[in-house]
């Protein structure tokens, strides 16, 4: 009998039956005077993919095909369960079926998941140990006795009514587990004592912050033992996790979302104008950006150096660096080909977008134009094409545009020596490029002279704590968060991101503890 048909007929009923009791707890979502639980949300696509890969050992990415869910900032998928569509429900169900089937096609992965064999048809010790072990990993917590009984009933039904052997019955139970809200939702159950949630939830908070995935057995063991209640132990575990290869997901999922490098794979480049932009170069550009950003997390480079830190070497991007003069030393995030490309149109540079990326992303300053303001540059007219600087000057004569452009244009035009894929150039439309400007009253000759001025801007050290705290708590900031992020900024002083992570993970809000009044 086909296992997918059996699962569709029997497994869904069991899943829905379990869901009724699992999702019924009313969890607090406010931190006013109490420890704070995270609002329940669906695993994001990247979280779902990483979780099934770590749980089952597969390389599949089923969530790439899930329906897109809207999100604001880092509060991804919050509250989606209340309006989970039929299409989304089916996608979760099909993802569970397909990824488990994929795992059990491999003898090696099967052996990794099914680690014992019953000694007889009446031996419950082996299947129960598997239910507890696999359920604990899948749900990121130990199963309740009722849950163990329910999944054991599913196992026995698979063996007896569906005539499955032991391995197929375990696969069936895994499918049901992965179709449960306890797997595809992050739900924090109420805790006891001073914490708002149970101990295992802190392990999940930490693992989804740093690894973008489920906690491993070691982390769950330490959390459930209570050792993470000690700040020194929590920081030591954080450092250990940052040294793990899985911490690269923090770079791509936090820094990549914040600074936009995750969009490189979908960014459109006009290769008829820029033939140097090949798939190999594009991959190299993304890899270099991730290596650069990782240095602030796992290395000793302080965040205040983000505008001036040296670039990691990457031979794949050499076609984009071939025109660099010997006197040019590319330094800092803004001269990475990744940033220069992302902040350009497919066929030309965009000084406004380049400047806005700094002001809004790195400085957390809103630059939303007023309603009705035209943001596009005026079209080329006349027989002589105008440079981007000349077209911006025309644009800035509009009083409704001048306010923002007087702030943005000097910064963006300083990068005009780099084209839409980050190659160095000296001319635009046959005219010499003028990269000079004035930043907050101080004149500069070019981008290299501007970067030290940007590094001294106090907003640089105030923005990162806001972004990291929002990412860690999986929600947009609220007014009551302002004192917290201000304290982070004042004590962190734009040091390494590792130091900022330490502050966030030991904060009462992240640990679910009530905060003392200031």
TrEMBL record:
Domain DUF1588 stretches: 330-428
InterPro entries, per database record: DUF1585, DUF1587, DUF1588, DUF1592, DUF1595
Residue ranges occupied by any DUF1592 domain in the UniProt entry: 200-311
Protein name: DUF1588 domain-containing protein
Domain DUF1595: 127-188
DUF1585 domain: residues covered: 440-510
Stored Pfam families: PSCyt3, PSD2, PSD3, PSD4, PSD5
DUF1587 domain residues: 42-104
